[in-house]
Amino acid sequence: MSLSEVFNLADKNPVVAKMRVAELLAAISGVGKIRAQAIMERLDISPTRRIQGLGKHQVASLNSEFSPTTTRGKLIVLSGPGGVGKSTIAAHIRKQKTFWVSVSSTTRKPRTTEKHGVEYYFLSDAEFDEEINENHFLEWAHFAGARYGTPREPVEKALASGKNVLLEIEIEGAKQVKIHAPEAILVFLEPPSWEELVSRLEKRATDSPQRRAERLQLAQEELAAASFFDHRLINDEVEGVAQKLLSLASAH
Q1: Pair (163, 243) in one structural domain
Q2: Per-residue pLDDT tens over the stretch 12-42
Q3: Domain Guanylate kinase-like: where (predicted)?
Q4: What is the spatial distance between Cα 119 and Cα 84, in angstroms, rounded to a whole number?
Q5: Helix and strand counts by DSSP (H, E) for the chain
Q6: CATH assignment at residue 38
Q7: Could you report the per-residue pLDDT of 174-202, keeping only the tens digit for each?
């Protein structure tokens, strides 16, 4: 019996309707308790929720998760120090039909070349607070005086449709994703050398000398977090790094 058939049966059978979702998922072949818990956290479903208490969007998400006709996409998380070239790699991956690149929300001010909904969703502090309160973020974190977050719903929809998803986010956010989605593949992007990273950061015309010094100090701390990640790639050539990311999605 498929998951959708169980949900349909719950409409007629009160015994099935009162069954806990965690027990139902854990009983599915190849799932088990740990994966069931991770799926429920990712889909924002309470661990004590019963089938009869599921909302329509939660039922739809669960059906998509276990759809026999669609292979769920892979979640790739790209992170690394500021100035290493994450956004350039993400822009290259965005051209691939098999990938969908998430657009993060942030409270920082847009740069002159950035547009709302393209590079980021630029939110006020109040708007960001509301998104947190509504549990609309897969992850969110403070970075360099601003807050950044990944909208949950579009990521789930893309994965359920079979698309591979790339999150270009900060290190603290990447750690949060790994907790809520253990199957995520974490990739740390490294500069060819420290001197090259310094050169890239110094070329940012929007940063004051003090801001550049702060970014360099932060970059040193971020480089120390590389061991937490599943894979480490040196950004010495955009095309090569993009191809390696595509290969990682195919290999896992």
Answers
A1: yes
A2: 999 999 999 999 999 988 788 998 999 999 9
A3: 73-250
A4: 16
A5: 12, 9
A6: 1.10.8.50
A7: 999 999 899 999 999 999 999 998 888 88
